[in-house]
Design a protein that fits this description.
Blueprint (H helix, E strand, L loop, with lengths): L17 E7 L6 H12 L13 E10 L2 H10 L8 E8 L3 H17 L3 E7 L9 H5 L3 E8 L7 H18 L7 E6 L2 E8 L4 H4 L12 E6 L18 E5 L4 H11 L24 H14 L4 H8 L12 H11 L9 E6 L3 E6 L8 E5 L3 E5 L12 E6 L5 E5 L4 E3 L1 H9 L4 H8 E3 L16 H10 L4 H14 L52 E3 L15 E4 L6 H9 L5 E5 L1 E2 L5 H17 L4 E5 L8 E2 L2 H14 L7 E5 L6 H9 L4 E3 L1 H13 L6 H5 L1 H20 L21 H6 L25 H6 L16
Parallel strand pairs: 17-19, 20-22, 22-24, 24-25
Antiparallel strand pairs: 1-8, 1-13, 2-7, 2-8, 3-5, 3-6, 4-5, 9-10, 10-11, 11-15, 12-13, 12-14, 15-16, 18-19, 21-23
Helix pairs in contact: 3-5, 8-9, 10-11, 10-12, 13-19, 14-19, 14-21, 16-17, 18-21
Length: 795
């Protein structure tokens, strides 16, 4: 096992590989198909790496539809009696006998708890000569487990669900055992995989050469572990799929799966809450994707539906897209974010054999159908030697395309067929028409700052939020004037914040990630059709039970809000909201203040609030604002831990966010949308002083132009990260939040502790949701009553 030490981190695991699938259109099993899959896998050797020993590879394997007769024969030879329907699986165990016995006992106990009978264990024949020296060092004990239904009348789907629950609970019970891993345990499929080169897979597992081994579907895969170390368990295929590419949003996907876990309910899985977390929080991106797919399948979705939720095609920018199909994607977009990044996926669950590509089509997949009624899909042509005259049909999958074979009916389904099936299962368009709200937009929005600050107040705010003249002139003004970021040289001699003697923004401590194997890179200017900043405000609901009330959402074209849009959101009757002031008394301390804000947020969500407005907008004498990024990350993670995150949305009203990197950090750490009031106030003051060189009409559009520049900046960041949609937010979301635990973080959080107000205010802080304007808060006009808890001019 490889521990996360030195520069190696298990979270960096990515895959860029070769894959393929061979299936009989008539679902007729044969040994020829298995052997053809093995020879096809051999032709993908160039897709993986090899160690100096010449035999240790990144991993390869086969996923087969269950060869029932062959497995029954093996069980009989091992003295295992099977009565009626049965399941078989491959299990990796420790070579230390005591540890292996404990894992076997844990699995047997959980199977018994599900009413299943562990009929016996079979030692899988292995040829160690097939392994290189590096692979032999970490070779697990490999056995096959046979499970029967103990004379119960279970259909295959119900059998697989019980196996899933038992296996997941056994994994949790054996969490301390790094060797225990179950590559497959199913009544429908079986997996053979290992950390060897493709030409040695059949030698490693003599079972594969047995002529009795017959199957009608074979998924094969050669792994290339990008910049990481191979492991036996990380070889593909996984329990359902094999994947070529990288999921660049995997950290966010894992965190949202954790947050979404308490929300999911299915009558088919009454014990679902005992299985949390639903996806692996370590290991490779493909492993986590397979975990999420398995949960969706066990909950009642079919592979067509599940993969369209996990890896949807581009739909936001397609004006000609069928309205019902658009409604299908829009309905589910609020309940499941895309697993975004280059992806070519082949999979089988025993009923379907399927291949799909990501919305950009950044991984190739070609298919052909031959006269022997065999479907072949692979990451390249020529994986086996069929003759040109034997080809009945061939082609390639394009961006977002899906091709599936229904083994039960023998029907080949293309993308249009699959879309037709999915969009007609429920009246999604009618549900959205009743439930979705769109915010009003004006062609000309002259209200850049409906509550303009006077110059002295603006000066105080700029000092508090560290807005420098350089930032005003070279960043904010340029974004608004040119609708794009300023162009600079590649060189940057600014000291790292941790080494700087200057007070630096907390945002400066974060760096944007770059995709490892997203090639070619996404062009955010020329490929806008696949990119989207659309986000939604609304509660997530249980995707296993779609209903009209799940369509209640407010659609935002961008997470960057104008003042008009923010007011519209808060004025909606359906959007109940809670105001959370980010200010605190210095005597309270930053950590205690953030914990108090987290508790406030938890209480508000439990009371049914849909929107939490985190705001540092209205400063009070003697109090200082906690940094919006710290509080956003803290509240987000606290609500994830308490199982409440998917019931609310975080809107951040802050003076700290002014440039695209700031917004990306906030969105990456959990914000749904951001209102950058300080930037608007600075632009308004520039316009008032004539510092913006635009004509009168363009000045009226200054706020809109600023947001356009921010959107371009966000698109640029997303393209570098290899993702296309901001719905896969929390790109950089961590499993912990920091409240200045280190000197470096404390340096980023330094704010003036002495009062900066030169005038006093006798008003008490306003009640939640009732806010005074900045001028009233700073100066207290005669209409304010001393000591009151409300303001006569609430916004």
């Amino acid at each position: 096992m490889h521990a996360s030490t030195g520069l190696y981190k298990e979270a960096y695991e990515r895959d860029s590989c070769g894959f393929g699938l061979i299936a009989s259109l008539d679902d007729i099993p044969s040994h020829w198909l298995v052997q053809t899959a093995i020879s096809s896998l051999n032709r993908l050797t160039h897709r993986g790496a090899v160690a100096a020993d010449g035999k240790t590879g990144d991993g390869c394997g086969l996923l087969l539809k269950k060869p029932a007769g062959f497995l029954r024969a093996l069980a009989a030879e091992a003295g295992i009696t099977l009565s009626g329907p049965f399941a078989a699986g491959l299990v990796f165990l420790s070579r230390e006998p005591t540890q292996a016995d404990a894992a076997r006992a844990a699995l047997a106990a959980q199977l018994a708890a599900q009413g299943l009978h562990l009929a016996g264990w079979r030692q899988v024949p292995l040829d160690p000569q097939a392994c290189g020296a590096e692979a032999l060092k970490v070779l697990p004990l490999i056995e096959q487990a046979f499970v029967d239904t103990d004379a119960q009348d279970l259909d295959e789907a119900a059998f697989n669900r019980r196996l899933f629950v038992a296996r997941r609970l056994a994994e949790k019970a054996c969490a301390a055992d790094p060797w225990f891993y179950v590559p497959s345990l199913s009544a429908s499929t079986i997996v053979y995989k290992g950390m060897v080169m493709p030409q040695y897979l059949a030698q490693l597992y003599p079972d594969l050469a047995d002529p009795r081994l017959e199957s009608s579907v074979a998924v094969f895969h050669q792994r290339f572990s990008t910049n990481t170390l191979p492991q036996w368990r990380l070889a593909h295929p996984y329990r359902y799929l094999a994947h070529n590419g990288e999921i660049n949003t995997v950290q966010g996907n894992r965190n949202w799966a954790t947050a979404r876990g308490p929300l999911l309910r299915s009558p088919l899985l009454p014990q679902l809450q005992e299985l949390l977390p639903l996806v692996s929080l370590t290991g490779s991106d493909s492993q986590s994707l397979d975990n999420m797919l398995e949960v969706l399948l066990m909950g009642g979705l079919d592979p067509l539906h599940a993969m369209r939720l996990l890896i949807p095609p581009a739909w936001h920018g397609l004006d000609a897209l069928d309205a019902d199909l658009r409604a299908f994607y829009e309905f589910y977009s609020v309940h499941m974010e895309p697993w975004d990044g280059p992806a070519g996926v082949v999979l089988t669950d025993g009923r379907y054999a399927l291949c799909t590509l990501d919305r950009n089509g950044l991984r190739p997949a070609r298919y052909c159908i031959t006269r022997n009624r065999c479907l072949t899909i692979a990451s390249e042509s020529g994986v086996w030697d069929y003759q040109p005259e034997d080809v009945l049909r061939k082609g390639k999958l394009g961006p977002g395309d899906m091709l599936a074979l229904d083994l039960r009916s023998g029907t080949l389904l293309m993308s249009a067929d699959i879309d037709q099936l999915l969009k007609t299962r429920h009246p999604y368009k009618a549900w959205l028409k009743q439930g979705v709200s769109y915010l009003e937009s004006d062609l000309v929005d002259a209200r850049l700052a409906a509550e303009p600050m006077d110059r002295s107040t603006l000066s105080l705010y700029q000092k508090m939020f560290n807005v420098t003249q350089e930032e005003r002139d070279d960043i904010i003004r340029v974004l608004a004037q040119d609708e794009s970021e300023a162009v600079g040289s590649m060189g940057d001699d600014t000291p790292l914040p941790v080494l700087s003697h200057q007070v630096r923004s907390l945002y400066d401590y974060f760096r944007q990630q770059f995709a490892q194997v997203t090639n070619p890179p996404i062009d955010s200017l020329r490929e806008t059709i696949v990119m989207s900043l659309q986000t939604q405000i609304g509660p997530e609901c249980n995707i296993f039970e779609p209903a009209p009330e799940h369509a209640r959402q407010v659609v935002l074209g961008s997470p960057i809000l104008s003042q008009r849009k923010l007011r519209q959101i808060l004025a909606l009757e359906a959007v109940t909201h809670e105001f959370i002031d980010l200010q605190y008394d210095p005597a309270e301390g930053l950590k205690a203040a953030i914990l108090r804000m987290c508790a406030h947020a938890e209480s508000a969500v439990q009371d049914g609030k849909l929107v939490l407005l985190l705001s540092d907008r209205y400063l009070v004498k003697g109090r200082i604002p906690a940094h919006a990024l710290l509080v956003t990350g803290a509240v987000h993670q606290h609500l994830v831990r308490t199982g409440l995150r998917c019931k609310c949305n975080l809107l951040v009203e802050t003076g700290t966010a002014r440039e695209p990197h700031h917004f990306a950090c906030l969105i990456g750490y959990g914000a749904t949308a951001v209102y950058p009031y300080m930037a608007y106030q600075v632009l308004f003051e520039m316009m008032r002083r004539g510092r913006v060189k635009l004509d009168f009409a363009a000045r009226l559009e200054l706020g809109r132009s600023y947001r356009a520049g921010l959107r371009k900046g966000l698109f640029k960041i997303m393209s570098k990260m290899g993702i296309s949609t901001i719905c896969s937010r929390s790109w950089g979301s961590q499993t912990r939040w920091c409240s200045c635990a280190s000197p470096a973080r404390r340096a980023a959080c330094r704010v003036p502790t002495s009062p900066i107000w030169k005038r006093t205010c006798s008003c008490s802080p306003p009640l939640p949701g009732i806010r005074a304007t900045p001028s009233r808060r700073a100066g207290c006009s005669s209409t304010c009553t001393a000591g009151s808890t409300t303001c006569t001019t609430p916004t």
